[in-house]
Prior knowledge:
The protein is of the alpha+beta class and 403 residues long.
Amino acid sequence: MRTLCSFTTPTASTAQHMQTCDFLVIGGGVIGLSIARELRRRRMDAQVLLIEKEASCGAHASGRNSGVLHAGFYYSPDSLKAKFTRLGNERLTVYCEEKRIPLNKCGKLVVAKDAADLPSLDELFRRGQINGIELQALTEAEAKSIEPRVKTYQRALFSPRTSTVSPLQVVNAMQEDALREGIQIRCGTAYRGRANRNVRTNQDSIEAGYIVNAAGLYADKIAMKGLYLYSDEPPGAIRTNIYPVPDLRNPFLGVHFTITADGKAKIGPTAIPALWRENYEGLGNVNFRELVEVASRGFGLLTGAGFDFRRLAMEEISKYSRSKMVSLASVLAEGVVERHYRTWGRPGIRAQLLDITKKKLEMDFVLEGDDRSMHVLNAVSPAFTCSIPFASYVCDRIDKAIG
């Protein structure tokens, strides 16, 4: 069971200010913008309206992610993530080059901490081959030739197609393109409820022929907070992204080194369970209703989850400690010391979908919809990378639904 949008009836006063459109997209992140642009491309005469509750697009998950363009070898070959990551990497790379958005084509090393990691390393290589991903199996010496400071046990993998970019620059470019293409974007407009084709917002009511819910954290999800520590070493001190072999039973990749578009290193992210959906820093924007909801759900997961939620939560909460984060990162590279990692970066957020009936984390993208609306669920990493071809897939589903 998954909770989607609530249904309410517009009042007489809001009905007086009814705007109409053919397609209404809710959510101005990279997925919402990409879907709106694809809808407009397919139907040049359609009125496409995108609403975003914040003052600007990309204020939450899209603008706060690591900016990594993933290659696509982590994901099970039968998954949507596998299907769209390689193609998304190619298309978003081309897009950034056309828009002259700086890309750091530094690649990625995946390293093993001990012999127990080698079978999973082999599984990643197998997935990469099946998914058609360029991937190199390396010896320890070959890995050090790419990044002299790297630590690995016997072997490693290198992904030359992995790169990094500023996510906000991508979102801003897509927003400019959408406006130029004739899409209407209304920021500061929050979804409040829906009755059939009438959507009520904090501003007015909108009569929409078709509704696309790309609201991210409110699509409906639980949130995982991602913290990053930035290095004060000079750009180029570490040359490439360095990732551990992940636990393939869950959708998180563990603490790793990301090299930003300007060559600086950061370590993270965490996957700390957020106390409410937009729980970034402190209690400044606390939402008590969501706090109660998340707390009650968390207690249920402690005893009956289909994954080890207790262990995962305790491990991730410990990463609030700067020394803990640096210690985990030091397993991946030489010369990683706490004095070089003093600055916490802008927190990210992961809108991770939880199947509350089975009490398990969803591993893949999820779409649910009919001939009136489509709901984009669990658009988590690598959704940023996948955004362009994934939007095409969503629009294929819409075309099929409405005939």
